[in-house]
Amino acid sequence: MDFPATAPGALHGVRVVEMGQLIAGPFCGKTLGEFGADVVKIEAPGTGDPLRNWRLLKDGTSVWWQVQSRNKRSIALDLRQSEGQDIARKLIAEADVLIENFRPGTLEGWGMSPEALHRLNPGLVMLRISGYGQTGPYRDLPGFGVIGEAMGGLRHLTGEPGRVPVRVGVSIGDTLAALHGAIGVLAALYHRKVNGGQGQVIDVALHEAVFNVMESLVPEYSAFGAVREPAGSALPGIAPSNAYKCTDGWVLVAGNGDSIFNRLMDAIGRPDLGNAPDLANNAGRVARVAELDAAIGAWTAQRGVQQVLDALAAARVPAGKVYTVRDIHEDPHYRARGMLLEQRTRDGYTVEVPGVVPKLSATPGTVRRSAPRLGDDTDAVLKEAGLTDAQIALLREKGVVA
Question: How far apart are CA 43 and CA 402, in angstroms?
């Protein structure tokens, strides 16, 4: 279902062919689509993207699908058949961007190598997301986002010291790869615009996208031989910054700025610590971090979450409640900034979904159409590619399209 017309988005006029499935490739397509790109999603007839059936289903379809595939059009096309591959090439020939997250070599096996596609469409920007990248000794190994999180260094740090490494709770490896892919696509489109219309290939490895956000991990090892270890909820080397128990929940307190630390100590009734000369800078506070955490924890343990937040807000100390989705749903700030939207699905029900990020002042992202049913747009997309009704009917009879 389409939504009321809005002003053209920042990527209006950009045609994207999405050949990925599940999370990494499709999240990138979702992001581009929210800012106006026309995203044509190719799915396998009969089954479609497996994400359609992941986690909680309503009326037979995942509610996650309603977010991940909004603003996209779906064509059910069998890429294992030569005629299906021919149709894909027709679509790619007219596209600005191709997104794929198959195992390296899959496209080449279908006769769609970057070289072949660039002969067909020299301006094509081709995003390839895979576990280990298109080159290197691990390129052919199967890789999912969770493996990328492990190899990228993140899993070693998530958890309590001496305990099993834990998930972040969402598919962060896939999403980081998708966001890096979106950055690459935008950079490549700009390069194409100012450098004669030439396209290029963007190679994103899941583990590299994770590794890219690992902050000081490598230089600390290089300079000091330091191997950073899990630290639970604390921020190693920065103090005080931790989660603290209250009578009815947890709060995070970031009191690590020099002046902020003084205000925090006043707020919790410990000016003796705030005025201690050796605690005037971060290095001194790190040396006594256990003592500081104990002092803050003793104060929060006697108070409710809201009481702690009110006191620290008055003292201008950054602090926040650990939100559940219920907290998000009830929070007025989320609603004031349009981060919770009601979206009508093609199955006829309304569901609340996340808003669009980032927020552009002149060309904000929008939800223009709800997530498609499998093959909803097959005929329309094929007609745009120049096929007649008779040709489409024959392809459907052969099982090439659905």
Answer: 10
Beta strands in 57-138 (DSSP E): 57-58, 61-62, 72-76, 97-100, 125-130
> Do the beta carbons of residue 268 and residue 323 sit within 8 Å?
no
Closest CA to 131 of 160, 109, 103: 103
DSSP per residue, 362-375: SS-----BPPPPTT
State the sign of the Cα–Cα–Cα–Cα dihedral 43, 44, 48, 49.
Answer: negative
* Contact in structure between 92 and 112 (CB atoms under 8 Å): yes
pLDDT tens-digit map of 356-399: 999 999 999 999 999 999 999 999 999 999 999 999 999 999 99
Task: Please tell me whether residue 244 adopts helix, strand or coil conformation.
Answer: strand
What would the pLDDT profile of 28-46 be if each residue is shown by its tens digit?
999 999 999 999 999 999 9
Q: Which of 357, 367, 400, 360 is nearest to 382 (CA)?
A: 400
Q: How far is CA 340 from the centre of its chain?
A: 17
Quote the Cα angle for 266-269-273, to 5°: 70
Length of the chain: 402
- Reference 240, options 265, 218, 216, 209; nearest CA is 265
Note the pLDDT of residue 5.
65
Side chain identity at 215, as an amino acid letter?
E
Query: Exactly one of 174, 293, 376, 377 is catalytic; which is it?
Result: 174
Q: What are the angstrom distances between the C-alpha of 317 and each of 243, 253, 263, 277, 292?
A: 14, 8, 7, 20, 15
Low-confidence ranges of the chain (pLDDT < 50): none
d(CA 255, CA 114): 51
Q: Is 96 among the residues known to form the active site? A: no
Amino acid at 354: P
Domains of the chain in sequence order: 15-213+334-398 (3.40.50.10540), 241-323 (3.30.1540.10)
Per-residue pLDDT at 235: 85
Is the bond preceding 332 in cis, omega lying within 30 degrees of 0? no
DSSP 8-state class, residue 101: -
By three-state DSSP, how is residue 147 classified?
helix
Residue 239 near residue 282, CB atoms below 8 Å: yes
**Token couple for 135:** 């080159």
Question: What span, in angstroms and rounded, lies between the C-alpha atoms of 348 and 343?
Answer: 10
Burial (CB < 10 A; 0-12, 13-18, 19+), residue 292, is: buried
